[in-house]
Amino acid sequence: MASLEEIKEGRLKKLETLRKAGIDPYPAKTERDFEIGELIKKFEKLQSENKSVTIAGRVMALRLQGAIAFADIFDGTGKFQILFKKGEKMSNESFDLFLETVDIGDFVQATGTLFTTKREEKTMQVSAWKMLTKSLQPLPEKWHGLANVEERYRKRYLDFLMDPELRDLIVKKSQFWNVIRSFFREKGFLEVETPTLEVTTGGAEARPFKTHHNDFDMDMYLRISVGELWQKRLMASGFPKTFEIGRIYRNEGTSPEHLQEFTNVEFYWSYADYRMGMELVKELYKTIAQEIFSKTKFEYNGHTFDLADDWIEIDYASEIKKQTSVDIAEANEEEMKEKCNELKITYRGENKERLTDTLWKYCRKNISGPAFVINHPVLVAPLAKKVLGKEVVQMFQPIIAGSEIGRGYSELNDPIDQQKRFEEQGILLGAGDEEAMMPDLEFVEMLEHGMPPTCGFGFGERLFAILANHPVRELQTFPLMRPRE
Question: What was the pLDDT predicted at 350?
Answer without folding.
Answer: 73
